[in-house]
Amino acid sequence: MTEHRPYVLVLFYSRHGATRAMAERLVAGVESCPGIEARLRTVPPVSATCEAVDPEIPDEGAVYASLDDLRHCAGLAIGSPTRFGNMAAPLKYFVDGTSELWLGGALVDKPATAFTSTSSLHGGQETTLVSMLLPLLHHGMVYAGLPYSEIELMETNAGGTPYGASHLAGKRSDRPLDEHERHLAFAQGKRLARLALALEASRREAL
């Protein structure tokens, strides 16, 4: 990756792998657009025991996100499994630590989107997406959901919402993404990449 090439940060937390699978589809959508890259990052779990410390680099999978990953992104996709209709605590913990970026307006006018996975069909997908939307609006980001020009939104019988891509993982969290869910996550990443490039060009012109 060249130093000045724009990238979309795909930031997620995943416990059983379903949200990670969605993140990878968004990455593919981002990277289908010339001129921009995806940067896949996760967050460490949180512990009720204050002394518990995870290693700085996970044993496998995506590396942990830093504030600089977020600061310098051209766009952001944020994903989490549902926890009682809300984003998971590890992701919220990371988001709660971004006040420094908020104070400096680092994310103002950058596009963002959200995605989620649940074990049941009515397990809080839309409220979880909204819970991730709220801090993005506080950061001054431009939220981009999924438009109904993606006809899979009308055809899906599992995941898929206008607020962002979603996935029905099943009660054992072992149901793979179906074709509609795969398409919608890819389309969401592609749309975010196009918007990131356009808004990045607009910001540069304004300098």
From TrEMBL:
Annotated GO CC locations: membrane
Keyword Chloroplast listed: no
Parts forming coiled coils: none
Co-factor requirement: FMN
InterPro entries attached to this UniProt entry: Flavodoxin/NO_synth, Flavodoxin_CS, Flavoprotein-like_sf, Flavoprotein_WrbA-like, FMN_Rdtase-like_dom
NCBIfam families linked: flav_wrbA (TIGR01755), PRK03767.1 (NF002999)
MF GO annotations: electron transfer activity; FMN binding; NAD(P)H dehydrogenase (quinone) activity
Family: Belongs to the WrbA family.
Protein's UniProt name: NAD(P)H dehydrogenase (Quinone)
Location of the Flavodoxin-like domain: 8-192
Enzyme Commission numbers on file: 1.6.5.2
Organism: Halomonas lysinitropha
Keyword Cell inner membrane: no
Sorted UniProt keywords: Flavoprotein, FMN, Oxidoreductase
Cited PROSITE patterns: FLAVODOXIN, FLAVODOXIN_LIKE
